[in-house]
Amino acid sequence: MSGTWSAPGRVNIIGEHVDYAEGLCLPFAIAERTVVQVSRRDDERLHLSSDFEQGTFDGELSEIGPGTPKGWAGYVAGVLWALRAAGHRVGGIDLHVTASVPLGAGLSSSAALECATAIAVDELFELHLPRTELAAACVRAENEVVGAATGGMDQAVSLLATAGHALLIDTRSGDTRQVPFAPAEAGLAVLVIDTKVRHALADGQYGKRRAAVEEAVARIGSLRDADLAAVATLPPQIRPRARHVVTEIARVQEAVALLEAGRLAEIGPLLDASHASLAGDFEVSSPELDLAVETARVAGALGARMVGGGFGGSAIALTPLDRVDAVSHAVRAAFAASGLAEPDVRIAEPSAGAARDQ
């Protein structure tokens, strides 16, 4: 048994760094997808290869565990490990990655790889699991095998997205809701500006931010229920991190209300406020991200912010269609003037979730 499966990356409209704090997120799936060709084996060996990443992995399922294998193969092998740990009968596979969401761009290439693997394994081994359970296995793979302390937003949207919508994710209850999001119909585009500055979520900075949030929760309870008065009682070293989470959750709620009222163009100031909070209170921006955001605004974007884990990767800019070329040119010119590599600027289309291709 064999086939080809794919899963999309994502852009998070708003709700950054709150998915591990019982918060609300509002991502959408993008057209860029990671594609895997997978064959079921009759033994318990894994052979993993990629057109986009160096190295291969060839080993037994019994070898998989925290920290093994290293690199990109851990995202694939970790999914099988997590499914087996949950009691599902999963054997060996041959897997080759033939296309990829841009790596390190903050568009969740890792979750796309995990989710493409998960739906392939689910079908090949006839597990018939709910997509929410597959998402949980992907999160466990990333947390425990790869060692990146991410939340579940990326995997949920990669598996559950529908075209023309964003996915409101309540990370406390696990509930999701499709929220209309069709920028082109409103005369707008979501530009993704890839700064080409690469980051690794397992390098410790993401984990430090998450640890600060968890300490705040231990002191004042769930930040989902907290207000700024409670945040003000926290020690100075963690207070700004908690303030970002509390204010970001409120921004998600306001954005959803605007989108459901058909007022998409009015979310621009919320994007601006989100970036200011991520850069100031959460300190996960970078000079390149700040340059992209500020330049896009000056050139005519209605709002802009960094997306993803931070420290590099991409920003988004909500832009009128008639200003797309001007904003794109201005950002590229600003990077050139600063001696930076040319950024990649593209329109992100709200797209469908993971599926079998062949």
Automatic annotation (TrEMBL):
GO terms for biological process: galactose metabolic process. GO terms for cellular component: cytosol. Residues 256-336 form the GHMP kinase C-terminal domain. Signal peptide: none annotated. Its EC number is 2.7.1.6. Residues 4-40 form the Galactokinase N-terminal domain. It is an enzyme of class 2 (transferase). GO terms for molecular function: ATP binding; galactokinase activity; metal ion binding. InterPro entries: Galactokinase, Galactokinase_CS, GalKase_N, GHMP_kinase_C_dom, GHMP_kinase_C_sf, GHMP_kinase_N_dom, GHMP_knse_ATP-bd_CS, Mevalonate/galactokinase. Pfam families: GalKase_gal_bdg (PF10509), GHMP_kinases_C (PF08544), GHMP_kinases_N (PF00288). SUPFAM superfamilies: GHMP Kinase, C-terminal domain, Ribosomal protein S5 domain 2-like. Keywords: ATP-binding, Carbohydrate metabolism, Cytoplasm, Galactose metabolism, Kinase, Magnesium, Metal-binding, Nucleotide-binding, Transferase. Residues 75-160 form the GHMP kinase N-terminal domain. NCBIfam families: gal_kin. Belongs to the GHMP kinase family. GalK subfamily. This is Galactokinase.
